[in-house]
């Protein structure tokens, strides 16, 4: 057995279905870069505070402005990538993120690191991340037959939750010993290893059909949104995802204020309340495929999507002490479990409903909208938290989340056969 085949076999054994050598390398690359990202979780704000003496406004700008600029830059990249082979694009995005991140330890060693550089690097990484995710979805659709997409997405989901569990503690230990710049180096190396893994997938990727016009037209930038909004299934799923993710993330800073300031929880208790429930994501992702096999994709999508919306409102009831800690841990466990089931089913539905020559533009539009809505709602809830108090603002977000199941698709008709989704030849 060749080394690549052995890797695919080892990665596939645990979940009971082999998806081949090429997916094995892609999965390994995904896991490596995800682990690097979580190792460096919070590194940029720490560098800004500890090295550059940045204040709260600058730290907030580092998160919001960098993501917003990256999303804006990614908009024209979607149509551009659509008509190119995806594997070279994936490798290029990994190498771009690696190179951008390595400028930070380089500048730090020379004593010339600035806040502007952190801002620029965060924008570059955000743009490359959106483009990578969009191209990765298109590549996966050509790599595997339709019946294996849910298995693949479930494995990506389980890997994401695994790295969420182990990455931040390891990164925190490394930061304590070596400083936050060391975790940035680890993140950069993870992207280099990811690029090597994607290169090892090999095979012959068919070149997409050339478009009629050689130049990028202004209308091309909106193609992803047009495609989503004209599909009866993608449209409600799109709005549901953007609103749900935005409201959940908007409440996180206020929850930190409530727990760490108003209720007096220690930082380790705050971290534990969110790290420990991540194991529920592993359980949920493992159950996604059996549930779809038994109950059907639409029913699982709607039920899991509705159930994940009922948990966050409970955070407004949190009090001090052990009872409050158990409450937030239980709420996060239920929320993450439902998301672990919903996310791979939603990702599979999205790929199945999108034509092969529209995947990159559609996924780019999806990611840009999600990031933009999250940034906007986070800013709005920051103002509400100041006016109403963090507990009331958290409760308001939870109440609004209860309405998000109304945006879930009423039905998911079977997708039409896609001639662009032929497997890559090895």
From TrEMBL:
Q: Does the keyword Disulfide bond apply?
A: no
The family database entries (Gene3D superfamilies) matched by this protein are listed as:
MFS general substrate transporter like domains (1.20.1250.20)
Q: What is its main location?
A: membrane
Question: What does the UniProt keyword field contain?
Answer: Cell membrane, Membrane, Transmembrane, Transmembrane helix
Under the heading InterPro entries, the entry gives: MFS, MFS_trans_sf
Q: Does the keyword Transmembrane helix apply?
A: yes
Source superkingdom:
Bacteria
- What are the subcellular locations of this protein? Cell membrane
Bilayer-spanning residue ranges: 23-47, 59-78, 99-128, 177-198, 237-258, 270-288, 300-318, 324-342, 363-384, 390-408
The annotated topology with respect to the bilayer is: Multi-pass membrane protein
Gene Ontology terms for molecular function: transmembrane transporter activity
Can you list the GO cellular component terms from the UniProt entry?
A: plasma membrane
PANTHER family the UniProt entry points to: INTEGRAL MEMBRANE EFFLUX PROTEIN-RELATED, MAJOR FACILITATOR SUPERFAMILY ASSOCIATED DOMAIN-CONTAINING PROTEIN
The name on file for this protein is: MFS transporter
Upper classification of the source organism reads: Bacteria, Bacillati, Actinomycetota, Actinomycetes, Kitasatosporales
């Amino acid at each position: 057995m060749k080394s690549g085949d052995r890797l695919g076999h080892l990665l596939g054994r645990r979940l009971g279905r082999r998806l081949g050598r090429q997916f094995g390398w892609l999965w390994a690359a995904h896991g490596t870069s995800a682990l690097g990202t979580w190792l460096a979780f919070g590194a940029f704000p720490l560098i800004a505070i500890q090295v550059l003496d940045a204040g709260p406004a600058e730290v907030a700008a580092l998160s919001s402005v960098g993501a917003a600029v990256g999303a804006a830059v990614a908009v024209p990249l979607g149509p551009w990538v659509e008509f190119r082979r995806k594997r070279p694009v994936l490798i290029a995005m990994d190498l771009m993120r690696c190179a951008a991140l390595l400028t930070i330890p380089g500048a730090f060693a020379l004593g010339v690191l600035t806040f502007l550089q952190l801002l620029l690097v965060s924008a570059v990484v955000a743009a490359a991340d959106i483009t990578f995710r969009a191209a990765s979805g298109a590549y996966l659709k050509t790599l595997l037959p339709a019946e294996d997409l849910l298995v693949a997405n479930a494995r990506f989901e389980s890997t994401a939750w695994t790295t969420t569990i182990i990455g931040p503690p390891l990164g925190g230990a490394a930061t304590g010993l070596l400083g936050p710049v060391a975790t940035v180096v680890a993140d950069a190396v993870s992207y280099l290893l990811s690029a090597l893994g994607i290169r090892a997938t090999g095979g012959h990727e068919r070149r997409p059909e050339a478009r009629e016009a050689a130049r990028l037209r202004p209308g091309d930038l909106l193609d992803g949104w047009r495609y989503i909004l004209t599909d009866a299934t993608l449209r409600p799923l799109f709005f549901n995802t953007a609103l749900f993710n935005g409201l959940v993330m908007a409440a996180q800073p206020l929850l930190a204020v409530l727990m760490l300031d108003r209720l007096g929880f220690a930082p380790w208790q705050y971290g534990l309340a969110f790290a420990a429930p991540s194991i529920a994501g592993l359980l949920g992702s493992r159950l996604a495929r059996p549930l779809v096999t038994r109950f059907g994709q639409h029913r699982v999508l709607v039920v899991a999507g509705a159930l994940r919306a009922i948990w966050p409102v409970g955070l407004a009831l949190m009090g001090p002490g052990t009872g409050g800690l158990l409450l937030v841990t239980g709420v996060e466990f239920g929320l993450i479990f439902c998301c672990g089931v919903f996310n791979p089913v939603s990702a599979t539905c999205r790929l199945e409903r999108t034509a092969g020559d529209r995947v990159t533009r559609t996924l780019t539009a999806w990611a840009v909208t999600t990031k933009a809505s999250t940034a906007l709602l986070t800013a709005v809830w920051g103002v509400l938290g100041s006016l109403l108090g963090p507990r009331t603002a958290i409760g308001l977000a939870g109440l609004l989340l209860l309405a998000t199941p109304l945006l879930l698709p009423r039905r998911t008709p079977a997708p039409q056969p896609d001639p662009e989704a032929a497997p890559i030849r090895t």
